[in-house]
Amino acid sequence: MSLPTDPTTRTSVADAVPPPRTEADLTAVRPFEVHVPDEHLADLRRRLEATRWPTPELVRDRSQGVQTATMQALTRYWATDYDWRRCEAKLNGLPQFTTMIDGVDVHFIHVRSRHEDALPLIMTHGWPGSVVELLGSIGPLTDPTAHGGRAEDAFHLVLPSLPGYGFSGEPKELGWEAGRVARAWAELMKRLGYGRYVAQGGDVGALVTDLMGRQSVEGLAGYHLSLLTAVLAIGDQLPRESEEERVAGSAVAAFRQDGFGYFLEMATRPQTISYAMLDSPVAMAAWMLDHDTDSYYKISRAFVDGEPVGNLTRDNIVDNLTLYWLTGTASSAARSYWEDARALAAAIASGQPPPVVTVPVGFTTFPGEIWASPRSWVEVVYPDLAYFSEAERGGHFAAWEEPELFATEMRAAFRPLR
Asked: Residue 1: what pLDDT?
């Protein structure tokens, strides 16, 4: 399947005058491949080369935003050395599919392990990520014997693109908040024939995964998270007695005071920032890099110093940015924050406690996370917490940055559920 001829649309040439399709056609699981026209890549390079640069920031850190040196180094690499065809080949070397769920065409990667007793696992990416951030974990999770694990640790892996992200379709109506995505994922797993499975998520994916548990969707046997999203709703009620809790509390306060800009803009005015993101690849990239301090400095090191941290290499970072640009999904992805913000506000206003989770929950705290949640915080939200671990390294994009370590955590967290 080809990408749109206009990167700002979601309609391919082949689909411009679509033939009539039955309900069975729409809900079928269809093979998918990525083929970007050369002119789209040429247009991207022209836009990169024509960037109008602001004057440099007046500070030596990121307190005024993404630094000029970082963006200029990234842009030089993107315009001159980067090869999208390498990423395209990697994606097309994996089993990719689309299927219509609740009116949206959902793209997903589905890799079955060669170990037939593998446990089905659906993993959900976040923002500003995509399925690209999960690619490095596919081998360790589906083929553990080749990565220091045991055959009984294997997973059948399903990696969907969130609606409005990447190669998934863009919702054309209001209401696609994380709870609706959670139900769509349950339908996807049912459609793939998985009657019992587990789930994992970080960032937006953590919210989707948690709502799968709170909705008690069919087939879900347990789940794992790497971000405690409940902090956004009940952060002021969490304990601050131990040094670990006080450090986490300070991190939350810093996020709300100085790191909340992208979140607030997309939760309230996603359309406004979309004009810049859809018109300028550099504007889009800068907006996405300005996410959290830990990942920003790691990404900056990759471009400015030539010293990538873990799997956050220049190519892997630009793969993700290019995917957003070529699919024209920066706008629809931003709108997902608007949807979730309203759903969260409505839930808080109702005064009703969230539904109780009845399946086992595992949690790994990565030290570079926006707020590295201590066990005591996690147990406030999940009193019957089944698994908890504090990783030695890794940050907000744990699966992307440290795929082998991340896979080790998944094996340990889900081992009792096999």
From this structure: 46
When pLDDT is averaged across residues 253-272 and rounded to a whole number, the result is 96
Distance CA 415, CA 418 (A): 6
CA-angle at 277, arms to 324 and 279, nearest 5°: 105
Give the single-character DSSP code of 3. P
Tens of pLDDT, residue by residue over 340-357, are: 999 999 999 998 999 999
387 against 8, higher pLDDT: 387
- Rg of the Cα trace of the chain? 21
- CA 242, 244, 248, 251 dihedral sign is positive
- 20 SS3 class: coil
Would you say 98 and 32 are in contact if contact means Cβ atoms under 8 Å apart? yes
Task: For residues 54 and 46, give the distance between their C-alpha atoms in angstroms, rounded to a whole number.
Answer: 18
Whole-Å CA distances, 285 to 165, 221, 310, 320, 406: 15, 37, 20, 10, 26
